[in-house]
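User: I'm writing a short report section on ligand binding and want a predicted complex to refer to. Could you take this sequence and adenosine-5'-triphosphate and write out the structure as tokens? A short remark afterwards would be nice.
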Amino acid sequence: MRVPNNPFILSGYHSPKYFCNRKNELLWLEEQFSNERNIVLYAHRRMGKTALIKHFFYHLEKSKTASTVFVDLLGTSSMPEANKKIATAIVQKFGDFKGGIGQKMLAMISSLGATIGLDPLSGTPQVSFGLVKPTEVEKSMEAIGSFLKEIKKPVLIAIDEFQQITPYPEENSEAVFRAWTQEFPMIRFIFSGSHRQMMQTMFTDQNRPFYNSAQMLALDTIERSDYIKFIKDFFAQAKLKIKKETLEIIFEWTRMQTYYVQLVCNKLYGRGQSVTKELLMEVQQEMLNQEAPLIATYQQLLTDFQWRTLKAIAIQEMVGSPTSQEFLTKFSLGAASSVSSAMQMLLKKGFVVQENNQYTLHDTLLLRWLQQL
Ligand SMILES: Nc1ncnc2c1ncn2[C@@H]1O[C@H](COP(=O)(O)OP(=O)(O)OP(=O)(O)O)[C@@H](O)[C@H]1O
Ligand SMILES: [Mg+2]
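Assistant: Sure. The structure tokens for the complex follow:
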């Protein structure tokens, strides 16, 4: 892979060099995996779940310890769609078609109802999956499992955005997935998701199929001193200076949400100058301006009152009790009951999250944007 022009990566994973810390998390993941335990990884959005999985996979593949498969369920809305994503990922991973398609692979492909054609450009075989009927999902998953079971190296499948399966129209989606993992006990799984609450209840509620079936890791922010060193070193290599105080401001402003730290640093680095407070302010403003169109669409998803409630929470940053008289009066929000139902909506739609008995906005840029209004 080529060396990136800017060391602060904004999408995906490059290599350990551009990945900060997560040493303890990596050790923990390795320990779970080497002891045949399934893993749940959850955190708020943009904290670095996907990148951490890719980082873990990088090491497993490099040391040839495991065969890794990455499936992203984002955008899927039914079991047949999830099935297709999984099947496609597996064929991509194991389908080395240069020497023809192996018997086992062929058997799996045909049982999935997929078709094999030739790529018109390269002439290599290509598999195209349609959607199986909902009634055939289990059979299809079974075929995938039977194929994977025969692979000599341990197989680790990461299913990212796993919370996505909860609202599928098939009411038994969790049960089907759970049965699948139980049927193939030698396949290891990482279930990852950005809806903390949903992931937590899915794996800790006694009445849910996945109850107590995996080891859970709540991904926290990156350790500050490590992040400071990581950032300073890249600036120094380009003969640019960035002060520790400036980094503290950045951490505060982004609340250590990894993607935003990366974005600020990427933009600052891109300016090619040593960083001053003024430059930082310019970059922050640029980020907020770029966010404006997205924020307009957010606003359309909410009623006027919900939006005002959201703004009040943003200004306060952390709110213990949004229905307290003090809060209602301070922001002229009227009746506690209206705020209470607005809060329910804001939580449900993921605008607001609850953390340590305090409410706050999920999205840091939206928070900063509302604060400057
Ligand atoms: N430890 C790290 N060091 C450097 N960059 C990182 C690190 N972790 C994540 N990033 C970067 O931060 C951004 C967000 O990370 P990632 O997409 O993994 O988050 P996520 O938790 O999966 O988010 P989402 O909930 O949106 O799926 C990416 O650009 C990624 O490259
Ligand atoms: Mg992700």
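A remark for your report: The domain at 22-218 is CATH 3.40.50.300 (Rossmann fold). The two ends are 43 Å apart (CA to CA).
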